[in-house]
Amino acid sequence: MKYLLLLILTPLLLFGCGGGDDDGNTSTPTVTPSAKDDSAPSLSLVARKGQDFSTNYEVAFDVNLPTADTTFVMVYTDYVLDPVTGLNVPLNNSKLISASFDNGQFSGELNLGKHVDDVFVQVLSTSDDPNESFTRIVPTGPGIPVVIN
Questions:
Q1: CA distance 66 to 37
Q2: Could you give the residue ranges of the DSSP H alpha helices within 2-137?
Q3: Please, how many CA atoms are within 13 Å of residue 81, restricted to the half-sphere of its CB?
Q4: Average pLDDT in the 42-64 region?
Q5: In whole angstroms, what is the distance from residue 102 CA to residue 109 CA?
Q6: Rounded to an integer, what distance in angstroms lies between the CA atom of residue 94 and that of residue 115?
């Protein structure tokens, strides 16, 4: 009985799945590409001599804090005003730097988009002094370094 069922189902599986036409040809049809549409006008752009097409700029980033404790610094490009607390809150997806250092000194470069005109800097210290942890909005731009003292 098992073999009879297998004998009946095998041809159905082999030939009953469709595909192809009456002569058994199962190849896919070929597609011919359409002719190029030359009716669209071409545009030529003209830029001033010396035009800067870059979308980013680099600025120096320096931290110089009078502490020997471990300090963490985070830099963000975007922040929002929290309506409950009235404080600016950074948006985590805009974080540029998250670093820690022990001597209060840190320097590097930030690669910022031209739309960024200030950065949100958050400094957290492991010191017992609450004045060593702060947040600050620092204006920046091409050639304007970000300095935290």
A1: 68
A2: 2-15
A3: 2
A4: 80
A5: 19
A6: 13
Percent of the chain whose pLDDT exceeds 70: 72
Q: For residue 36, what are the contacts with CB-CB under 8 A and spacing of at least 6?
A: none
Whole-angstrom distance, CA of residue 134 vs CA of residue 55: 30
What is the pairing mode between strands 79-81 and 134-139?
unpaired
- pLDDT tens digits, residue range 74-93? 999 999 999 999 989 999 99
pLDDT averaged over every residue in the chain:
78
On the 0-12 / 13-18 / 19+ scale of CB atoms within 10 A, 65 is: buried
Q: What is the pTM of this model?
A: 0.60
